[in-house]
Amino acid sequence: MIEVVFSDKFLWGGAVAANQCEGAWDVDGKGPSICDHLRGGSLTKKRSFDRKILEGEYYPSHEAVDFYHRYEEDIALFAEMGFKVFRLSIAWSRIFPNGDDQEPNEAGLEFYDKVFDECIKHGIEPLVTLSHFEIPYALVEKYNGFSDRRVVDFFVNYATTVMTRYKDKVKYWLTFNEINFATLPFGALNVLGMLNEDTVDTHDPVDNLQERYQALHHVFVASAKTVIEGHKINPEFEIGCMLAHMTFYPLNPKPTDMMLVQHWDNHMNNFCGDIHVKGEYPYFIKNYFAENDVEIKFEENDQEILSAGTVDFYSFSYYSTNCASTDQGTELTAGNLMGGVRNPYLEASDWGWQIDPIGLRYTLNKLYDRYQIPLMVVENGLGAVDEINEDGNIIDDYRIDYLREHVVTMSDAIDDGVELMGYTMWGCIDLISAGTGEMKKRYGFIYVDKDNDGNGTLDRKKKKSFDWYKKVIATNGQDLA
């Protein structure tokens, strides 16, 4: 037992994304999203991006884990665990199949009506991400995504349409998922919807800095406009940003390593966070732009929009930490997006992600000190290979250990004075990997019978961690045994 520090209003729950769980990619009027053009892959092969969907090829998002047809069953399981909140995303192309349509797709709107009604029936608050690495593919082909200013208005029209429709069903909203990934060349395809002429896969860099950062500026404006309009639709809305927080340590106490940490922290985390929370571009990114001949074109009133459209809370994903070193020949980790240096004091997951619960406490304190607004951990979890034993059970003690340690450090951060709203563990039900499209890397409390090639019954099965998390929620984080 630990001392109860979590508020009675603390939002315990789990998180998924539409393109990784819904399936039904062309059902009931849905148009293809950029994710529907990604073929499956493996750890040794990059996911392939196809401009045209090919016959006979496997596209994991087309079926995913079929949440579209099984949402009642899945939400009932979440309710059995005691979820207070369920983070999910709306597929933009389910509402506006081409992105620039004049009228929304009513069948798509009705689907999410049913999902939210099911949540409400079970006493679960929906937390909705408006764009979780998704953009209608038609906007990619016609406008090259957010590189075209017109896409700002298409997004705001979509956002205000669903916010108006669900204004009495959804209180918590996030604009863009892990928007700081757009600062990375390989992240621009999913986040910004931008393609090079010769793009062949998700890791082909969109390396025109001017175009990439101009597109990102358009995303910032779209987010800020959405916050402004959302508060008009319902002043009770809580609208947040969402970043992939990349926490860095210096490998050695060398001043040059510390300066490298500061550079990466500013560029990967503080740049996007400052614009969302403070409403202006920070000094260090202006210097970076000047050094790299990037000149952001501001339309009239853009600065006023950014200043007025700041978020109500800051949410982020946290899985691991990175070390930074200026030394040549240091050992890199397999799983770190930034190619971070291996930390000799940490163990790693099967996918090379370094496990660092104390780093979450450090991160929460750092963020709260910088922004002084409520925080929420909306992604955290352990991707692992889960096996069904001879008794038909899935004993995932390794996942329980990982989550327990992170819950403890969240309670420590609250004791430190951090205002933490809630926690939604990533992939509460097994889903397809965003990075590879495989099923082998599982996060969930609920096992889904499906393999990397798309074979399986899709039947759901509780893991040992299911009952553990149920107990954690029931005791408000006190009983972690």
TrEMBL record:
GO molecular function (one): 6-phospho-beta-glucosidase activity
Record flagged with keyword Hydrolase: yes
InterPro entries on file: GH, GH_1_N_CS, Glyco_hydro_1
Gene Ontology CC entries for this record: cytosol
SUPFAM superfamilies assigned: (Trans)glycosidases (SSF51445)
Iron-sulfur listed as a keyword: no
EC number: 3.2.1.86
Listed Pfam families: Glyco_hydro_1
Family note: Belongs to the glycosyl hydrolase 1 family.
Protein's name in the database: 6-phospho-beta-glucosidase
Originating species: Vagococcus coleopterorum
